[in-house]
Design goal:
Blueprint lengths: L1 H20 L5 H52 L9 E2 L5 E2 L5 H5 L10
Antiparallel strand pairs: 1-2
Helix pairs in contact: 1-2
């Protein structure tokens, strides 16, 4: 991919002065040729990357199918995330999520509103 970018930049730098010096072609024609060249390069890059992107999409979809039931179960167990303090990581790697007490839930939030 970097090679194609280098080729495109080299092409632009070498062709643009030559196009500006010719009497037959105008600058607009030169830019349209550069645009067409860039489109061709982009199409070829996309054609090369398409199989890898399709494989990535397939793998991601398979992973999501396995995660959705677990995420639903976790959401059902946790409930509203506002009922918890921010997580705390212990030195041994454990993560603790402490539930707020009813008194903490009744306290007004910093903007003066009460969470319900």
């Amino acid at each position: 991919m970097k090679i194609l970018l280098v080729i495109l930049c080299t092409f632009c730098l070498t062709v643009s002065p030559a196009l500006a010096q010719t009497e037959e072609g105008t600058v607009d024609e030169g830019f349209s040729l550069l645009e067409e060249g860039a489109k061709i390069i982009m199409r070829s890059m996309l054609d090369e990357m398409e199989p890898a992107l399709k494989e990535l999409q397939s793998e991601f979809g398979d992973a999501m199918e396995g995660m959705v039931p677990m995420m639903r179960d976790l959401a059902n167990q946790i409930g509203d995330i506002r009922n918890y303090h921010p997580p705390v990581k212990l030195p041994n790697g454990d993560i603790i999520m402490r539930r707020k007490t009813p008194q903490e839930l009744a306290e007004p939030t910093p903007d003066g509103e009460v969470d319900i």
